[in-house]
Write a structure and sequence with these properties.
0% strand, 218 residues, globular
Length: 218
Amino acid sequence: MEAILRNTITNDWITILVVLSLLFLVLAKNVFYSRFLNFIILPFNNKYIFMYNKKEKLMNWFNLFWGLFLIINFSLFIYLALNIIMENDHSSKALAFPWIIGAVIVYIFLKLGLQLGNGYIFGIKKMITEVLFKKLSYFNYSGMIMFLANIILTYILLASKPVVYVAILLILLVNIIGWITILRNHQKLITSYFFYFILYLCALEIAPLILIGSYLKD
């Protein structure tokens, strides 16, 4: 009886987060319906990128709704995945979630700040903004994979490692598609600043993955 009650309490706060993130998704759909439809097919069609890359600012309500949706589900996915892979009872680790979502927010904004700062320093602000728009678009899209994984891991296939691994592969696939698009469209920029591009990849893209992998291995 105590175990059932503890599990219910645990699922309650996760359910609140899932519903809250879904609210942001519904807002994005209802307020920006046409844009939402183009965004949904992003990995299969670049129409969204071509339509909104140059005429939209990086910060707007559509990106804000998706960003909040992503932050909640990204943090929740990390929380669930870590507990499942490390075989912890997540009902006793609920206090770790605020630290995770705080780290995610700091990482995302720090990364954006460094990238925009590089744009100002090297006089390529417009180009960097376009690159960030594309990266964020694909990253935000991967939030839907995290959302579905969170639902499955919480209510359907509890503590399923295969679901975690499949979700991670799909998230990587979506973002790799985004990177391929960026590399193809900005070859001249990357060639001109190749050394700094390598430094950026090592410091802000590869290093975090290595740190996470080392943590999981330990």
